[in-house]
Please model this.
Amino acid sequence: MVQEILENKFLSDFENNQNIVHKVCRIYTNNQDEHNDLFQEITIQLWKNYSKFRGESKFSTWMYRVALNTAISLYRKSTRRIKTQDIGDFVYKIQSNEYDDTEEKQLKALYEAIKKLNDIDKALVFLYLEDKNYKEIAETLGISEINARVKMNRAKSKLKKILTP
Model:
């Protein structure tokens, strides 16, 4: 009975916040298969650690922390493997004169630039783009608010350098 209540509470909390996991997956993966694998792994880690969630912070803050830590640890492991490239990225390109894809290209360029940052900078930028204030960013990443501000300014500078031709 207690287990069933815990499961239902977890499912409710997870369903209300699962976009957090999808956004983390988007930043740390290159294709849908990797996205699905990471989503599954983060979900497993969230469930395994749910009983340890004490409610001292918002569920979403705790979820960000678990998702980012899982993604970062898996990303670090994956950098030891041989890199492959998804052929789907090069096989075809659809062009349309009617559709203005400027915003989409800018967003894609931003995500590509974010992927070039180190793990902590990725997490900072991700939380910043999620409209988290520096206090929430600091709490999620386990650093001081001042440190979060300094690191964010440095990450912004790195992104500008990457994005400026």
In short: The two ends are 60 Å apart (CA to CA).
